[in-house]
Write a structure and sequence with these properties.
elongated; 27% helix; alpha/beta; seven-stranded parallel sheet
Length: 285
């Protein structure tokens, strides 16, 4: 008879009393590093994001949190690998280290995926042979709130993966991670290496039917969108929309009808409306 596994106990965290402690350098001046980058790391700042990252232990780099927050999440930290440092300090020091008030009491750094890991073939390797498949594609989304909302909506409606064109902003930017409720960490995504030619690859090699969310003279209402076993919905920026080159590679163009002089919806709102309609039970394939 096998003995039960020993219970994993919570690790004793490392207390940070010195603001100049070099061990917490990666957490210093968070907003400045948001602008100039952290090499191969990204940062998250909420309890929810921490919990999501703990489920991906290979991605964890370091954790810094207040004493009170540690007491709240200590059970979640039992599975954090031993090589990942867990630091604790008081809220005033945490805010001084970060350069602004961290009212959530949590900062966590993680390893970024490499360019190769973000290629379609690598990021979507586990999806290719599925009988049914749904992608969201984004072109030119440079607003981190929109990127975060797109990932959150995609997760809410069961999207399998997201393809970003090279001009989209970073989904691992701190605010994008927060707005997405951590779903930029759990939803598979790739960055196109050849745009818009990778749309041809999705259609020709993967058998994906691609439709664009855009208002044109020939676009049809969202409720007329046909379903397909393997499908993708393409969104463009609020300012410029989907490019002509990308639209030419689509199998259809659809829009959300609006009243009055409203020219378009924020992509966060538009994606929620269109994904809901697309995934609505009872729609024919």
């Amino acid at each position: 008879m096998n003995e039960p596994d020993a219970k994993v106990t919570a690790r004793t965290p490392i207390t940070i009393d010195d603001l100049e402690d070099p061990r917490i350098e990666v957490f210093r001046d968070v907003r400045e590093k948001d602008l100039r980058g952290r090499k191969h790391l990204f940062v998250g700042e909420s309890e929810l994001v921490l919990r999501r990252m703990v489920r991906q232990p290979d991605r964890l780099h370091a954790i810094l949190l207040t004493h009170q927050k540690y007491d709240r999440v200590r059970d979640d930290l039992r599975t954090v690998p031993s090589h990942v440092p867990i630091y604790v300090t008081d809220v005033e020091r945490l805010s001084q280290i970060a350069g602004f008030h961290i009212h959530r009491g949590v900062l966590v750094t993680g390893h970024r995926p490499t360019a190769e890991q973000l290629s379609m073939d690598s990021a979507f390797a586990g999806l290719r042979d599925r009988a049914s498949l749904t992608f969201v594609i984004a072109e030119g989304l440079t607003n981190v709130d929109n990127i975060g909302a797109l990932f959150r909506n995609a997760a809410a409606f069961g999207v399998d993966g997201i393809l970003l064109d090279p001009t989209c902003c970073d989904p691992l930017y701190r605010k994008a991670v927060r707005v997405s409720m951590g779903h930029t960490l759990s939803t598979p995504y790739a960055v196109a290496q050849s745009w818009p030619d990778d749309l041809d690859r999705l259609r020709d090699e993967w058998g994906v039917r691609i439709v664009a969310a855009e208002i044109t003279g020939a676009s049809q209402p969202v409720w007329t969108m046909p379903n397909a076993p393997r499908q993708a919905l393409l969104f463009g920026s609020e300012g410029h929309g989907v490019s002509d080159g990308a639209i030419r590679r689509c199998d259809g163009v659809f829009h959300v009808p609006m009243h009055g002089d409203v020219p378009s919806l924020n992509v966060g709102v538009a994606s929620a409306v269109m994904l809901y309609e697309w995934m609505r039970p009872g729609r024919s394939v």
